[in-house]
Specification:
It is a single chain. The chain has helices spanning 20-28, 46-62, 70-79, 84-91, 110-117, 130-136, 140-144, 151-161; strands at 8-14, 34-39, 99-105, 120-121. It has 166 residues and is an alpha+beta fold. It has a single domain (8-161), classed as PF0523-like. Strands 2-3-1-4 form a four-stranded antiparallel β-sheet, sandwiched between helices. Helix 2 crosses helix 3. The protein is globular.
Length: 166
C-alpha cells in the first residue's frame, strides 16, 4: 500500500510554553489537519523533522505504524526511539520551553495555527548544532569522526533506524 499523501509543513517557532498540554490540545483541534510540537533544542535541523514526518507517513501507508496518530508516529521517528514513553520523554515540550519545533499535516493556514498557539515563526530554532546532536544521544566518538556539517546526518541515521524492526 503506498504512503498516504499529505501536505507537510515543518516550522520552528518561539513563544513561552507554560503548559505543553494546552499546545497539544490546540494541535488536536486544528480543523482538517493535525500537528506535532516538539522541543526545538532536540531537533537537529529542518531535515531531521522532515525525515521523521516522511517515515511516519510511510509507516501509516504500510500499516506498520506504532502510534494511532500521525503526529505521535512522527514524534517516535523524531526521537529515534521505538517506545512512545521514551520518545515523549526525549523530545516533548516542557513547561518554560521557548523554542518549539512543529510539524503540520494537511493544515491549510499555518500562520493562523501559529497565532492560535501563541507562537511566532522562527525557523532558526531548528538549526543543527553539536549541542543538539549530543542531547539527541550522538556520542563524542561519532561527532569527532565527522565534520560539523555532518552532525545532522548522524541524527538522520538514528531517525531511519527507529523504523527498523528490532
Amino acid at each position: 500500500m503506498p504512503a498516504r499523501m499529505a501536505k507537510v509543513d515543518v516550522v520552528g517557532a518561539r513563544g513561552r510554553v507554560d503548559d505543553p498540554e494546552i499546545v497539544i490540545d490546540a494541535l488536536r483541534s486544528i480543523g482538517g489537519g493535525e500537528g506535532a510540537a516538539l522541543d526545538a533544542d532536540m531537533i537537529c535541523g529542518r531535515d531531521h523533522l522532515c525525515s521523521a514526518a516522511m517515515h511516519a507517513l510511510r509507516a501509516f501507508g504500510r500499516g506498520d505504524n506504532v502510534a494511532s496518530t500521525l503526529a505521535v508516529e512522527t514524534v517516535l521517528f523524531a526521537s529515534g526511539e521505538r517506545q512512545i514513553s521514551k520518545a515523549l520523554e526525549k523530545v516533548s515540550l516542557h513547561p518554560g520551553d521557548e523554542r518549539v519545533a512543529l510539524v503540520f499535516f494537511d493544515v491549510d493556514d499555518v500562520p493562523a495555527a501559529l497565532r492560535a498557539l501563541g507562537l511566532t515563526r522562527d525557523d532558526e530554532v531548528l538549526a543543527p548544532s553539536r549541542e543538539k546532536a549530543e542531547r539527541f544521544g550522538i556520542t563524542e566518538a561519532e561527532l569527532e569522526a565527522v565534520p560539523p556539517s555532518k552532525y545532522q546526518e548522524l541524527v538522520l541515521e538514528r531517525v531511519a533506524f527507529a523504523g527498523l524492526p528490532k
